[in-house]
Design goal:
single chain; alpha/beta; Enolase-like, domain 1; TIM Barrel; eight-stranded parallel beta sheet; globular
Length: 330
Amino acid sequence: MPGTLRIETSVESWPIAGSFTIARGSKTEAVVVVAEIFNGGHTGRGECLPYARYGESVENVRTQIAEQADAISQGMNREKLRKTMPAGAARNAIDCALWDLEAKQAGKRVWELAGQPEPAGIVTAYTLSLGTPEKMLEAARAASARPLLKVKLGGDGDVERMAAVREGAPNSRLIIDANEGWSASNLEANLEACTKAGVELIEQPLPAGDDEALRDIAGADVLVCADESAHDTSTLADLAGKYTAINIKLDKTGGLTEALALADAARDMGLTIMIGSMVATSLSMAPAMVVAARAEFADLDAPLLLARDREPGLVFEGSRILPPQAALWG
Protein backbone atom coordinates (compact mmCIF):
# COMPACT_ATOMS: atom_id res chain seq x y z
CA MET A 1 0.00 0.00 0.00
CA PRO A 2 1.51 3.34 -1.02
CA GLY A 3 2.33 6.11 1.41
CA THR A 4 2.88 6.08 5.15
CA LEU A 5 0.38 4.25 7.30
CA ARG A 6 -0.64 5.72 10.65
CA ILE A 7 -2.65 3.95 13.34
CA GLU A 8 -4.77 5.40 16.14
CA THR A 9 -6.93 3.75 18.79
CA SER A 10 -9.99 4.80 20.74
CA VAL A 11 -12.09 3.22 23.47
CA GLU A 12 -15.87 3.17 23.23
CA SER A 13 -18.58 2.04 25.65
CA TRP A 14 -21.84 0.68 24.27
CA PRO A 15 -24.66 0.00 26.76
CA ILE A 16 -26.37 -3.37 26.70
CA ALA A 17 -30.16 -3.45 26.75
CA GLY A 18 -30.74 -4.72 30.30
CA SER A 19 -27.86 -7.04 31.12
CA PHE A 20 -26.04 -9.97 29.57
CA THR A 21 -25.47 -12.95 31.88
CA ILE A 22 -23.36 -16.06 31.37
CA ALA A 23 -21.85 -18.59 33.77
CA ARG A 24 -18.96 -16.22 34.59
CA GLY A 25 -21.10 -13.21 35.49
CA SER A 26 -23.13 -10.30 34.11
CA LYS A 27 -22.27 -7.14 32.20
CA THR A 28 -24.24 -4.03 31.30
CA GLU A 29 -21.95 -2.52 28.68
CA ALA A 30 -19.58 -3.54 25.91
CA VAL A 31 -16.27 -1.70 26.11
CA VAL A 32 -14.48 -2.00 22.78
CA VAL A 33 -11.18 -0.81 21.33
CA VAL A 34 -11.28 0.58 17.79
CA ALA A 35 -8.16 0.76 15.63
CA GLU A 36 -8.07 3.13 12.66
CA ILE A 37 -5.34 2.96 10.02
CA PHE A 38 -4.94 6.02 7.79
CA ASN A 39 -3.27 6.01 4.38
CA GLY A 40 -3.65 8.06 1.22
CA GLY A 41 -7.01 9.57 2.08
CA HIS A 42 -8.49 6.23 3.09
CA THR A 43 -9.22 4.93 6.58
CA GLY A 44 -9.54 1.29 7.61
CA ARG A 45 -11.27 0.38 10.87
CA GLY A 46 -11.24 -2.67 13.11
CA GLU A 47 -12.93 -3.29 16.45
CA CYS A 48 -12.07 -5.71 19.21
CA LEU A 49 -13.37 -6.53 22.67
CA PRO A 50 -10.68 -7.24 25.29
CA TYR A 51 -11.71 -10.33 27.26
CA ALA A 52 -10.57 -10.84 30.84
CA ARG A 53 -10.97 -14.64 30.50
CA TYR A 54 -7.93 -14.52 28.21
CA GLY A 55 -5.95 -12.07 30.34
CA GLU A 56 -6.89 -9.04 28.25
CA SER A 57 -7.84 -5.54 29.34
CA VAL A 58 -8.55 -2.32 27.50
CA GLU A 59 -5.21 -0.96 28.67
CA ASN A 60 -3.01 -3.87 27.60
CA VAL A 61 -4.80 -4.23 24.26
CA ARG A 62 -4.25 -0.54 23.46
CA THR A 63 -0.61 -0.94 24.43
CA GLN A 64 -0.20 -3.97 22.17
CA ILE A 65 -1.71 -2.06 19.26
CA ALA A 66 0.49 1.00 19.92
CA GLU A 67 3.59 -1.22 19.90
CA GLN A 68 2.87 -2.06 16.26
CA ALA A 69 2.74 1.58 15.13
CA ASP A 70 6.28 1.66 13.71
CA ALA A 71 5.86 -1.64 11.86
CA ILE A 72 2.55 -0.47 10.43
CA SER A 73 4.05 2.86 9.32
CA GLN A 74 6.66 0.84 7.43
CA GLY A 75 3.95 -1.04 5.56
CA MET A 76 3.47 -4.23 7.59
CA ASN A 77 0.88 -6.41 5.83
CA ARG A 78 -1.60 -8.90 7.24
CA GLU A 79 0.55 -11.97 6.73
CA LYS A 80 3.53 -10.43 8.51
CA LEU A 81 1.21 -9.29 11.30
CA ARG A 82 -0.06 -12.86 11.65
CA LYS A 83 3.51 -14.15 12.04
CA THR A 84 4.87 -11.50 14.40
CA MET A 85 1.98 -10.71 16.74
CA PRO A 86 0.19 -13.25 18.96
CA ALA A 87 -3.46 -14.11 18.40
CA GLY A 88 -5.95 -12.10 20.42
CA ALA A 89 -8.08 -9.00 20.46
CA ALA A 90 -5.31 -6.51 19.67
CA ARG A 91 -4.22 -8.31 16.52
CA ASN A 92 -7.86 -8.66 15.50
CA ALA A 93 -8.40 -4.90 15.51
CA ILE A 94 -5.29 -4.29 13.40
CA ASP A 95 -5.96 -7.15 10.97
CA CYS A 96 -9.55 -6.07 10.33
CA ALA A 97 -8.47 -2.45 9.89
CA LEU A 98 -5.93 -3.56 7.29
CA TRP A 99 -8.59 -5.57 5.44
CA ASP A 100 -10.94 -2.58 5.49
CA LEU A 101 -8.22 -0.23 4.26
CA GLU A 102 -7.23 -2.60 1.45
CA ALA A 103 -10.85 -2.93 0.33
CA LYS A 104 -11.34 0.85 0.26
CA GLN A 105 -8.14 1.40 -1.71
CA ALA A 106 -9.03 -1.34 -4.20
CA GLY A 107 -12.65 -0.26 -4.55
CA LYS A 108 -13.75 -3.84 -3.84
CA ARG A 109 -15.50 -5.65 -1.02
CA VAL A 110 -13.43 -7.72 1.40
CA TRP A 111 -15.03 -11.01 0.39
CA GLU A 112 -13.94 -10.36 -3.19
CA LEU A 113 -10.36 -9.75 -2.07
CA ALA A 114 -10.47 -12.90 0.08
CA GLY A 115 -12.02 -15.07 -2.65
CA GLN A 116 -15.02 -15.83 -0.45
CA PRO A 117 -18.77 -15.89 -1.22
CA GLU A 118 -20.82 -12.80 -0.48
CA PRO A 119 -22.26 -13.07 3.06
CA ALA A 120 -25.87 -12.74 1.96
CA GLY A 121 -28.82 -13.81 4.07
CA ILE A 122 -26.92 -15.08 7.11
CA VAL A 123 -29.28 -16.34 9.83
CA THR A 124 -27.90 -15.69 13.30
CA ALA A 125 -28.73 -17.33 16.58
CA TYR A 126 -30.45 -15.11 19.14
CA THR A 127 -29.03 -15.33 22.66
CA LEU A 128 -30.99 -15.96 25.84
CA SER A 129 -29.05 -14.96 28.97
CA LEU A 130 -28.59 -17.30 31.92
CA GLY A 131 -31.36 -16.95 34.50
CA THR A 132 -33.86 -18.92 36.54
CA PRO A 133 -35.95 -21.48 34.63
CA GLU A 134 -38.94 -19.17 35.04
CA LYS A 135 -37.14 -16.16 33.57
CA MET A 136 -35.70 -18.23 30.74
CA LEU A 137 -39.15 -19.63 29.95
CA GLU A 138 -40.41 -16.05 29.65
CA ALA A 139 -37.44 -15.03 27.49
CA ALA A 140 -37.89 -18.08 25.25
CA ARG A 141 -41.56 -17.25 24.73
CA ALA A 142 -40.66 -13.69 23.77
CA ALA A 143 -38.12 -14.97 21.22
CA SER A 144 -40.08 -18.01 20.03
CA ALA A 145 -40.56 -16.60 16.52
CA ARG A 146 -36.80 -16.67 15.93
CA PRO A 147 -35.57 -19.75 14.08
CA LEU A 148 -32.40 -20.35 16.12
CA LEU A 149 -31.86 -19.64 19.81
CA LYS A 150 -28.59 -19.78 21.72
CA VAL A 151 -29.18 -20.57 25.38
CA LYS A 152 -26.65 -19.56 28.03
CA LEU A 153 -26.28 -22.21 30.74
CA GLY A 154 -23.61 -23.24 33.19
CA GLY A 155 -24.89 -23.94 36.69
CA ASP A 156 -27.11 -26.04 38.92
CA GLY A 157 -30.56 -26.38 37.42
CA ASP A 158 -29.51 -26.49 33.78
CA VAL A 159 -31.74 -29.53 33.13
CA GLU A 160 -34.74 -27.49 34.25
CA ARG A 161 -33.57 -24.47 32.24
CA MET A 162 -33.38 -26.50 29.04
CA ALA A 163 -36.85 -27.92 29.57
CA ALA A 164 -38.21 -24.41 30.23
CA VAL A 165 -36.66 -22.98 27.08
CA ARG A 166 -37.99 -25.81 24.95
CA GLU A 167 -41.45 -25.27 26.43
CA GLY A 168 -41.27 -21.55 25.69
CA ALA A 169 -39.96 -21.96 22.15
CA PRO A 170 -41.25 -25.31 20.88
CA ASN A 171 -40.45 -24.64 17.22
CA SER A 172 -37.05 -22.94 17.45
CA ARG A 173 -33.79 -24.74 16.82
CA LEU A 174 -31.62 -24.70 19.95
CA ILE A 175 -27.92 -24.45 20.65
CA ILE A 176 -26.50 -24.33 24.19
CA ASP A 177 -23.48 -22.51 25.62
CA ALA A 178 -22.31 -23.69 29.03
CA ASN A 179 -19.25 -21.38 29.11
CA GLU A 180 -17.13 -24.07 30.86
CA GLY A 181 -19.77 -24.33 33.60
CA TRP A 182 -20.38 -28.10 33.66
CA SER A 183 -18.31 -30.85 35.25
CA ALA A 184 -17.55 -34.48 34.49
CA SER A 185 -20.05 -35.47 37.20
CA ASN A 186 -23.07 -33.75 35.61
CA LEU A 187 -22.04 -34.01 31.96
CA GLU A 188 -24.08 -37.12 31.18
CA ALA A 189 -27.29 -35.85 32.77
CA ASN A 190 -27.00 -32.50 31.03
CA LEU A 191 -26.33 -34.12 27.67
CA GLU A 192 -29.40 -36.33 28.13
CA ALA A 193 -31.43 -33.20 28.78
CA CYS A 194 -29.95 -31.66 25.61
CA THR A 195 -31.03 -34.69 23.58
CA LYS A 196 -34.52 -34.59 25.10
CA ALA A 197 -34.85 -30.89 24.26
CA GLY A 198 -33.64 -31.42 20.70
CA VAL A 199 -30.49 -29.34 21.16
CA GLU A 200 -28.26 -29.42 18.07
CA LEU A 201 -24.99 -28.12 19.51
CA ILE A 202 -23.46 -27.55 22.95
CA GLU A 203 -20.56 -25.12 23.33
CA GLN A 204 -17.70 -25.72 25.73
CA PRO A 205 -19.45 -27.82 28.38
CA LEU A 206 -16.25 -28.42 30.40
CA PRO A 207 -13.40 -26.06 31.31
CA ALA A 208 -10.67 -25.67 28.73
CA GLY A 209 -7.74 -27.80 29.83
CA ASP A 210 -10.01 -30.05 31.89
CA ASP A 211 -12.13 -31.57 29.14
CA GLU A 212 -10.80 -35.12 28.78
CA ALA A 213 -14.19 -36.51 29.86
CA LEU A 214 -15.52 -35.41 26.48
CA ARG A 215 -13.74 -38.38 24.91
CA ASP A 216 -16.30 -40.60 26.65
CA ILE A 217 -19.20 -39.00 24.78
CA ALA A 218 -17.62 -38.87 21.33
CA GLY A 219 -20.70 -40.51 19.79
CA ALA A 220 -23.20 -38.09 21.34
CA ASP A 221 -26.19 -37.09 19.22
CA VAL A 222 -25.48 -33.41 19.89
CA LEU A 223 -22.49 -31.60 18.39
CA VAL A 224 -19.88 -30.73 21.03
CA CYS A 225 -18.31 -27.40 20.13
CA ALA A 226 -14.96 -26.02 21.29
CA ASP A 227 -14.96 -22.35 22.23
CA GLU A 228 -12.55 -21.49 25.05
CA SER A 229 -10.52 -24.55 24.03
CA ALA A 230 -10.01 -23.29 20.46
CA HIS A 231 -8.27 -20.05 19.52
CA ASP A 232 -6.21 -20.27 16.34
CA THR A 233 -4.80 -23.02 14.10
CA SER A 234 -2.16 -23.91 16.71
CA THR A 235 -4.88 -25.15 19.09
CA LEU A 236 -6.64 -27.48 16.64
CA ALA A 237 -4.68 -30.66 17.33
CA ASP A 238 -5.90 -30.89 20.94
CA LEU A 239 -9.54 -30.93 19.83
CA ALA A 240 -9.38 -34.32 18.10
CA GLY A 241 -11.51 -36.97 19.78
CA LYS A 242 -13.20 -34.50 22.11
CA TYR A 243 -15.02 -32.02 19.87
CA THR A 244 -17.05 -32.29 16.70
CA ALA A 245 -17.45 -28.55 16.10
CA ILE A 246 -15.50 -25.33 16.62
CA ASN A 247 -16.61 -21.78 17.44
CA ILE A 248 -14.39 -19.38 15.53
CA LYS A 249 -14.24 -15.87 16.99
CA LEU A 250 -12.05 -13.18 15.49
CA ASP A 251 -11.08 -11.82 18.90
CA LYS A 252 -9.62 -15.26 19.63
CA THR A 253 -8.02 -15.93 16.23
CA GLY A 254 -6.49 -12.49 16.05
CA GLY A 255 -8.35 -11.35 12.97
CA LEU A 256 -10.08 -12.39 9.78
CA THR A 257 -6.85 -13.61 8.15
CA GLU A 258 -6.31 -16.31 10.77
CA ALA A 259 -10.05 -17.02 11.02
CA LEU A 260 -10.20 -17.97 7.34
CA ALA A 261 -7.15 -20.21 7.74
CA LEU A 262 -8.68 -21.79 10.84
CA ALA A 263 -11.95 -22.45 9.01
CA ASP A 264 -10.05 -24.25 6.25
CA ALA A 265 -8.05 -26.34 8.72
CA ALA A 266 -11.10 -27.16 10.84
CA ARG A 267 -13.02 -28.25 7.76
CA ASP A 268 -10.13 -30.55 6.81
CA MET A 269 -10.47 -32.14 10.26
CA GLY A 270 -14.18 -32.76 9.67
CA LEU A 271 -15.30 -30.22 12.28
CA THR A 272 -18.60 -28.38 11.96
CA ILE A 273 -17.98 -24.63 11.86
CA MET A 274 -19.70 -22.04 13.99
CA ILE A 275 -18.81 -18.36 13.74
CA GLY A 276 -19.30 -16.40 16.93
CA SER A 277 -18.34 -13.12 18.54
CA MET A 278 -18.02 -11.25 21.78
CA VAL A 279 -20.73 -8.74 22.74
CA ALA A 280 -19.71 -5.79 20.58
CA THR A 281 -21.02 -3.55 17.80
CA SER A 282 -21.67 -4.16 14.12
CA LEU A 283 -18.08 -3.16 13.39
CA SER A 284 -16.98 -6.40 15.08
CA MET A 285 -19.69 -8.50 13.41
CA ALA A 286 -19.02 -7.31 9.84
CA PRO A 287 -15.65 -9.10 9.38
CA ALA A 288 -17.09 -12.24 10.98
CA MET A 289 -19.80 -12.22 8.30
CA VAL A 290 -17.13 -13.23 5.76
CA VAL A 291 -16.55 -16.46 7.69
CA ALA A 292 -20.28 -16.89 8.37
CA ALA A 293 -20.89 -17.41 4.67
CA ARG A 294 -19.05 -20.75 5.06
CA ALA A 295 -20.32 -21.79 8.50
CA GLU A 296 -23.14 -24.11 9.55
CA PHE A 297 -23.98 -21.94 12.57
CA ALA A 298 -23.69 -18.18 13.08
CA ASP A 299 -23.92 -16.37 16.42
CA LEU A 300 -23.61 -12.71 15.45
CA ASP A 301 -26.60 -11.20 17.23
CA ALA A 302 -24.60 -8.94 19.56
CA PRO A 303 -25.88 -5.68 18.00
CA LEU A 304 -29.42 -6.81 18.83
CA LEU A 305 -28.41 -7.08 22.49
CA LEU A 306 -27.16 -3.48 22.66
CA ALA A 307 -29.29 -0.51 23.67
CA ARG A 308 -27.94 1.16 20.53
CA ASP A 309 -25.52 0.27 17.74
CA ARG A 310 -23.15 2.38 15.66
CA GLU A 311 -24.36 4.07 12.46
CA PRO A 312 -24.39 2.68 9.91
CA GLY A 313 -24.70 -0.75 11.47
CA LEU A 314 -25.66 -4.14 10.18
CA VAL A 315 -29.23 -4.44 8.97
CA PHE A 316 -31.24 -7.23 10.62
CA GLU A 317 -34.46 -8.60 9.16
CA GLY A 318 -35.58 -10.60 12.16
CA SER A 319 -32.68 -13.03 12.63
CA ARG A 320 -31.41 -12.60 9.07
CA ILE A 321 -28.39 -10.32 8.59
CA LEU A 322 -27.83 -8.46 5.34
CA PRO A 323 -24.28 -8.00 3.99
CA PRO A 324 -22.45 -5.09 5.66
CA GLN A 325 -22.46 -1.74 3.88
CA ALA A 326 -19.06 -0.54 2.72
CA ALA A 327 -19.52 2.53 4.93
CA LEU A 328 -19.53 0.22 7.95
CA TRP A 329 -16.64 -2.03 7.00
CA GLY A 330 -15.07 -3.90 4.13
